Amino acid sequence: MHCFYIDPPEGGFARLLPEEARHAEKVLRLKKGDELCAMDGAGGRWRAEMDEGGRVRLIEALPSNESPTRITVYEGLPKADKLDFIAQKLTELGAAALVPVRMNRCVVKLDARDGDKRRERLQKIAREAAKQCNRGLPLEVAAPMDWKAALSAMGRHDALLIPWEDARGVRMKDVCAGLPDARDIGIVIGPEGGMSPEEVAAMTAIGGRAVTLGPRILRTETAAVIAAALAMQLWGDI
Q1: What pLDDT digit, counting tens, does each position of 2-46 carry?
Q2: Angstrom distance (rounded) from CA 86 to CA 57
Q3: What is the residue extent of each domain of the chain?
Q4: What is the CATH number of domain 70-235?
Q5: Model confidence, pTM
């Protein structure tokens, strides 16, 4: 079933957003009576059917498919379009938020204007990915943060996981065994050059746990997806 974003519903009906209406009617050639999934972008989903003039009739509300655990990934700013891939896959996995972070070893340097452009692009990618995977609430994408602000935010989670190539002996499931009821989890992924020992020390000082993802070093985009999937399997709904 195709999914489309709608304006706020009124009286059992809603209008597709203009771009969505064009895609439904001109590209997919949906007609009156054809079923679809309508999404308001704020968590609401409905089984619906096409009406006329870009309008849909809402048949029934669909249950939320959000994870019981909120997972936030702090990603050291990577090069090229790796954040695009990360935003798309985190949306599919059910993660709640992506926070790009300026770390010591980041090669990419974004000013405020470039950061806003990157955020808009990532938000669009997350919205499209949410439609593809029939998820009612797209991934939240934060503006790029400097290290100090990100560290302050990291300290607010029930559990803070730090996948790090120099970690030894502690796996994510070991942390889960000690914190099985955590419902707000932060995951910190380093950029291509990795995290510095000073950054890891600062995070462990606020309660973070350095964990290993295995004996092989993963690319930053791979580590982000694998870590989120493992956390969702241990604490979430996968």
Answers
A1: 999 999 999 999 999 999 999 999 999 999 999 999 999 999 999
A2: 34
A3: 3-61, 70-235
A4: 3.40.1280.10
A5: 0.94
In tens, the pLDDT along 34-62 reads: 999 999 999 999 999 999 999 999 999 99
Q: What is the CB neighbour count within 10 angstroms for residue 35?
A: 13
Place of tokens 């702090």: 74
225, 167 Cβ separation under 8 angstroms = no
Pairing status of strand 70-76 against strand 184-189: parallel
CATH number of 3-61: 2.40.240.20
- The edge-to-edge listing of strands for the beta sheet with 97-101 is 140-141, 97-101, 70-76, 184-189, 159-163, 209-211
Q: Comparing C-alpha atoms, which of 164, 148, 147 is closest to residue 104?
A: 147
Contact 32, 50 (CB under 8 A): yes
Question: How far is it, in rounded angstroms, from Cα 139 to Cα 111?
Answer: 23
Question: How many angstroms separate the CA atoms of 227 and 175, rounded?
Answer: 13
